[in-house]
What does this fold into?
Amino acid sequence: MRDISERNQAEAAIRESEERFRQVVENIEEVFWMTDVDQSRLLYISPGYQRIWGRPPEELYRSLDSWIETIHAEDRERVRQQSRELQSLGEYDVVYRIVRPDKSVRWIQDKAYPVNDASGNCTRIVGVATDITEQRQLEAQVRQAQKMDAIGTLAGGIAHDFNNILGAILGFAELARFRLGDASVVRNELDGVLEGARRASGLVGQILAFSRRQDPRRVPVQVSQVVAESLRLLRATIPAGIEFDVQLPRNLPPILADPDQIHQVIMNLGTNAYQAIGNQNGRITVVAEESHAGPLGPLAPSVLRPGTYIHLSFTDTGCGIPQEVIDRIFEPFFTTKALGEGTGLGLSVVHGILKAHEGAITVYSHPERGTTFHLYFPCAAANTPVDRAPDSPPLRGHGERILVLDDERPLALIGKQLLESLGYQALALTEPAVALAEIEANPGSFRLLITDLSMPGMNGLDLARRIHPIVPSLPILLTTGFLGGIHQRDLDHTGIRRTLGKPFSIAELAQAVKDCLAERVV
It folds into this structure.
């Protein structure tokens, strides 16, 4: 007879330890695995493998090669080599992609460590594999946000100076056109100058739009009307072999949008569709309909808030977008076109415009079967009047005296001349301190102050804050090529009634001046 109490206690302790180990490894999100020292045989793998890989563990017990086969083809050889060379050294920490049976791709971080016996010899390799797909997606979103922010900062830096140059070109050309009248023989040449300057201004607007640094001029508009006008222009540039199937109901509710940017969206999508179809015959289908986001509405992007939207679909029968790049098509400067055939800004601009309008855009595509973009614009509140075209000819003044301030002398002079051509009296200055002194000396002599935002020494916002306590009744019109992070709360209690983006037309200036004078505080 022998006393085996200690042995029984030891065996019970081992069973209890094994049970704790089993409960841990079977309930953690990670995959715990163990192989023999030559890595030719799997000793154990936790149930998390089936949850993450979507495959039964029995495949691995039969052959470790089945694990290598699940790795994305682009990562496979690298991982094979690193597993052989680094696992026994305790330096194996590898990130790779796997392809599940449903063809979805997951990102894995795999770490392994050697297990040594009492003599210090490596007998086992243990590892932990973690699904880091969501982490990678978040990192990609952060990188995208940083990229957009950096480009937006760059765009904001150049927008002011560039728009000042364009403002002078537009101003003098429009003033000359206005004075010469319709009968002038140089009218067509001036129209060409104006069109070129407006296109250049549009390029700055595109960069600001996709960087989401510029607030759109949102007014109630009919989508069907704006889209139809854009498609008419698009039709003239696309070969007759490409048919248009357009379904734009006229009774849709209005949306709050910038008509110029909606036009830009349609032109960009239309150009992409035409290039995807190429020289072959094809079809572009544009459909607008009312849709609802929320529990009671049809399927829509999860980023949309509950409410009523105009759903605009844009479909082509072109070559489609490869699945390996479809997640990158909205990145700035990313393009699948040949060198010199695209800037990579088109879809970035569209994406930025939709975001700025509190909408969303999604894309569905199959190689050789075409592409569909789904655009969602929030509808305006019920009974909102639709924006109308501004009065023509420009609204005129009645001799009101206006102070024009811009640190760029040509812009100050063109502002003065434009105002005088509209029937106002104007004084042009280029230094904020001189303008402040002029108003302090003659506080009641001006009916309106028009000031640039970005100026050395004292910007337009600071100037307005100093002038408003002196002459609370004086309305201020703030002009700028880039508003940046300025919001309405920054303008409150400054006397600033309106903001006017540079470059502006004589009609836009006339309307803004009229609006400010109408709101003058008595």
User: Anything to note?
Assistant: The mean pLDDT is 82.
